[in-house]
Amino acid sequence: MALNFRFAVVSDLHIALPHTIWDHPSRFHLVEVSIPAFESVIEHLTQLDLDFLLLPGDLTQHGEPENHLWLQKRLSELPFPVYVVPGNHDVPVLMADQQSIGFADFPHYYGKFGYDNPEQIYYTHQVLPGVRLIGLNSNFFNEEGQQLGRLDNQQLIWLENVLATATEELVLVMVHHNVVEHIPQQSRHPMGNRYMLQNAPQLLELLRQYQVKLVFTGHLHVQDIACSDGVYDITTGSLVSYPHPYRVFEFRQDNYGREWLQILSHRVESVPDFPDLQHLSKQWMGDRSLPFLMKFLTHPPLNLPPEQAQEIAPSLRYFWANIADGDALFDYPQFPQKVRHYIQAYSAIARCGTPHLIDNNSTLLLEKMRD
């Protein structure tokens, strides 16, 4: 029987009850809208006859127990199954402290949302007949207690065993950190590499070996679809930062056995207290962009002198907002040639040199990978 189903992805919710919100002058995201924006999304999604909903991490502002409890309760009230994985904000510390839950506590909060085994922070679940979801944990703490984006070896061994027994199923993978690069040289860029899974090549090799074509990620807070040798990494922007997006997917198999994935992106346009959310949020991001832009321009690979970066930065006020929006096209002919060409590389351009606007609304043909 051909597979046909509908699901949604909402990422980086950063849920924060009002009394838990902490402020920082350079933060890009509007945590103030986390709960009303999520309620707006849920109001829409409950009208769509979804088969399930995926939340690929950063569910809470900073791992606060009360924010996890609020979300746990709200998810239990929804009319469709929900599956989650932890982001770096959900388990920011190995052991619980006064602010955040501990790393091992996470599955205990989300037993109804994928974590049948509370002692394991990754899982697999048959979400529909013939459809298997694998929820991975990309939060890794080294010997110094530093949090990194990495899959531990035990998890990789477990994953290969799961994939080896799921060869007759469609497999979907959800993980917080990016698996395929979404910005130029992301895995080597000094500002972009922390959003990448450190051992992404090892994971990609496994996924290709077992013909897994779809990975759903978050963390980067941008709308982007990237592909590496048949594996699509579909990352969804944050619900609390411009453009406040979420996605609805339709998967279908046609009469010839071909697999298609239709992607429709939506935005939260307004919430109480923020009636013109899109405009205000873009302004908010632009107002806080200067420190980011100075770092971006003065660090490798551009390495501009601070004086030159100061001159260029105002023209790039909405640079990251446009990237976050997806399908961005950039050209700044007034910039020095080196800078102009580098900024152009962030555009949604296919290898043939023409615009390739697939980040928000598109239909992908998921072709069989070559052995």
From TrEMBL:
Family matches, as SUPFAM superfamilies: Metallo-dependent phosphatases
Domain Calcineurin-like phosphoesterase: 5-222
Highest taxon of source: Bacteria
A Pfam family recorded for this sequence: Metallophos
An MF annotation (GO) of this entry: hydrolase activity
Keyword terms: Hydrolase, Iron, Metal-binding
InterPro entries to which the protein is assigned, alphabetical: Calcineurin-like_PHP (IPR004843), CNP_phosphodiesterase-III (IPR050884), Metallo-depent_PP-like (IPR029052), Pesterase_cyn (IPR011239)
Family of the protein in this entry: Belongs to the cyclic nucleotide phosphodiesterase class-III family.
Name this polypeptide is given: Calcineurin-like phosphoesterase domain-containing protein
Originating organism: Anabaenopsis circularis NIES-21
Lineage: Bacteria, Bacillati, Cyanobacteriota, Cyanophyceae, Nostocales
